[in-house]
Automatic annotation (TrEMBL):
Keyword Hydrolase: yes
Metallo-beta-lactamase domain sequence ranges: 12-172
Gene Ontology terms for molecular function: hydrolase activity; metal ion binding
UniProt keyword Signal present: no
Cofactor(s) recorded in Swiss-Prot or TrEMBL: Zn(2+)
Name this protein carries in UniProt: Glyoxylase, beta-lactamase superfamily II
Species of origin: Amycolatopsis sacchari
The entry's keywords: Hydrolase, Metal-binding, Zinc
One Pfam family this sequence matches: Lactamase_B
């Protein structure tokens, strides 16, 4: 599996391209501010063709380039319906628990708290690894802002049950693992 990530925009939001392999279809996750050119560059470097855009939530630093990229490539943008009022482009409802796209089986978990429609995307890699893209729900060493009680429940119920070796690809900052975050969050509001 190919994972390409980069930070873009004033808030340095992470954008990811996920593909079964180089030289084929991919999905683009959270193309935020100033992400059009870096996405184009990554597509060219890895000979990828985007088939869809997946949004973890509707904040501008994660969605600002989605409309331009969707229009340029004629691809759908998937977003949880609870965040539709935040996004000024046409989107498809991301309300199920799985989405098959670009040769990938993407698990979808609704994790309200940062926004009402925040979601995480889970993938198993062919190499036996596990990934979860958490947007602004879980970072290395912290959780996002928003409705803290709702967010704590979402992290506790949806993310912490994942295996320790699950790699967390957050919306800002570097990668971590569920095991590392479980230890860091132990004793806090999320661990209850």
């Amino acid at each position: 599996m190919l994972v390409v990530g980069f930070a873009a925009g004033a808030l340095r939001a992470n954008c990811y391209l996920l593909a079964p392999a180089p030289h084929g279809p991919c999905v683009v996750v959270d193309p935020g501010q100033d992400a059009v050119e870096p996405v184009r560059k990554a597509l060219g470097e890895h000979d990828l063709t985007p088939e869809a855009i997946l949004l973890t939530h509707g904040h501008h630093d994660h969605v600002d380039s989605a409309g331009a990229l969707a229009g340029e490539h004629g691809i759908p943008v998937w977003l949880h319906p609870a965040d539709r009022p935040l996004v000024p482009i046409s989107t498809c409802d991301l309300s199920g628990t799985a989405l098959g796209v670009a040769g990938l089986e993407v698990g979808v978990g609704h994790v309200p708290g940062h926004t009402p429609g925040s979601v995480v995307f889970r993938l198993d890699t062919p190499e036996g690894g596990r990934l979860v893209l958490t947007g602004d729900t879980l970072f290395a060493g912290s959780v996002g802002r928003g409705d803290q009680e709702l967010l704590a429940g979402s992290v506790r119920d949806t993310l912490l049950p994942l295996p320790d070796d699950t790699v967390v690809l957050p919306g800002h900052g570097g990668a971590t693992t569920i095991g590392r975050e479980r230890r860091l969050l132990a004793g806090g509001a999320v661990a209850r």
